[in-house]
UniProtKB/TrEMBL annotation:
UniProtKB keywords: Amino-acid biosynthesis, Diaminopimelate biosynthesis, Lysine biosynthesis, Methionine biosynthesis, NADP, Oxidoreductase, Threonine biosynthesis
Record organism: Pseudopedobacter saltans (strain ATCC 51119 / DSM 12145 / JCM 21818 / CCUG 39354 / LMG 10337 / NBRC 100064 / NCIMB 13643)
This protein's encoding gene: asd
Protein name: Aspartate-semialdehyde dehydrogenase
Highest rank taxon of the organism: Bacteria
Pathway(s) where this gene product acts: Amino-acid biosynthesis; L-threonine biosynthesis; L-threonine from L-aspartate: step 2/5; Amino-acid biosynthesis; L-methionine biosynthesis via de novo pathway; L-homoserine from L-aspartate: step 2/3; Amino-acid biosynthesis; L-lysine biosynthesis via DAP pathway; (S)-tetrahydrodipicolinate from L-aspartate: step 2/4
Length: 331
């Protein structure tokens, strides 16, 4: 299959190339796409070198699938041009996520919504993806009423500029380029993306709205506080879930352990719980600190961690492509 990766030189694009190779996605020809200034640069993929092309050149090459990680405005402008040629676009930006005519997909949760007619498919926000994978089996069993989530998000979610800011600050370089309005080392910033009129940030609203769309259930109430911390390797989330029905804690652990893509790491007696340093480089969502919220009936607390560049972005995008292949919807 001819596969284009749009934004191939960025943090997520680089990870997409790695994941395509690792998972042996049937790539017969790779089309790495980046901005004009990277044109001609060589990218190594499975031992072969491919030259970076511009997006206009890539559209004319009519790939079967184009994985996009090039920001919202590029996606709004370029994805329809690929789609008009018959290429299926899987887009990692927020451009199409809440468009009612576009599918928003986490394969473990809702791969079944995909059809042959879907030419632009949205990949959800990283912090939403890891949460819904863990919520789905519990919703199916006990029906979720309300979720209260607080996140602890890696600087890699912002991009390379933020990684540089953190690393510079750790070296004592204080006049480097800033990705955030404040220092991030030895700090915590309770703002991810811009504030909305209702006092929530855009990241918080993504978690609220995308969760309902992916789970296909508008009745689930969600409230979120999203926070940037000086960490690389993964996003962590403290999740409080109120169910319609009572649950059995052992059964909750069993359900999560049996969920594809989830690993339960929950052994408080031996101080075993998920941490970003363990999730880094993995595709699974690590879930632990599973316990009853003793302040309220039918309510559970848990902690989940995942590598935001992998399952939160690149891996989920490639898994959508795999789901399309498995269901004979492309290729
Ligand atoms: C972040 N959710 O971590 C974003 C990345 N998509 O900032």
């Amino acid at each position: 299959m001819k596969v284009a990766v749009v934004g191939a030189t960025g943090l997520v694009g680089t990870e997409m190339l790695k994941v395509l190779a690792e998972r042996n996605f049937p790539v017969t020809e790779l089309i790495p796409v980046a901005s004009e200034k990277s044109k001609g640069k060589e990218i190594d993929f499975k031992g072969k070198k491919y030259k970076v092309v511009t997006v206009e050149e890539a559209i004319e090459m009519v790939p079967e699938v184009a994985l996009f990680s090039a920001g919202g405005s590029t996606s709004l402008e370029q994805a329809p041009k690929f789609a008009a040629k018959g290429t299926v676009v899987i887009d990692n930006s927020s451009a199409w996520r809440m468009d009612p005519s576009k599918k928003l997909v986490v394969p473990e949760v809702n791969a079944s919504v995909l059809t042959k007619e879907d030419k632009i498919i949205a990949n959800p926000n990283c912090s939403t993806i890891q949460m819904v994978v863990a919520l789905k089996p519990l919703h199916d069993e006990y029906k979720i009423k309300r979720v209260v989530v607080s996140t602890y998000q890696s600087v890699t979610g912002t991009g390379v500029k933020a990684v540089n800011q953190l690393m510079n600050e750790r070296k004592g370089i204080t006049d480097g380029e800033m990705a955030y309005a404040y220092p991030i080392d030895l700090n915590v910033i309770p703002q991810i993306d811009v504030f909305q009129d209702n006092g929530y940030t855009k990241e918080e609203m993504k978690m609220i709205l995308e969760t309902k769309k992916i789970m296909g259930d508008d009745s689930i109430k969600v409230t979120a506080t999203t926070v940037r911390i000086p960490v690389m390797g993964g996003h962590s989330e403290s999740i409080n879930i109120e169910f319609e029905n009572d649950f059995d804690l052992a059964k909750v652990r069993e359900l999560l352990a049996a969920t594809p893509g989830v690993i339960v790491v929950d052994d408080p007696a031996n101080a075993k719980y998920p941490m970003p340093m363990d999730a880094h480089g993995k595709d699974e969502i690590l879930v632990g600190r599973i316990r009853r919220d003793e302040s309220q009936d039918n309510t559970l607390n848990m902690w989940c961690v995942a590598d935001n560049l992998r399952k939160g972005a690149a891996t989920n995008t490639v898994q959508i492509a795999e789901a399309l292949v498995a269901q004979n919807l492309i290729g």
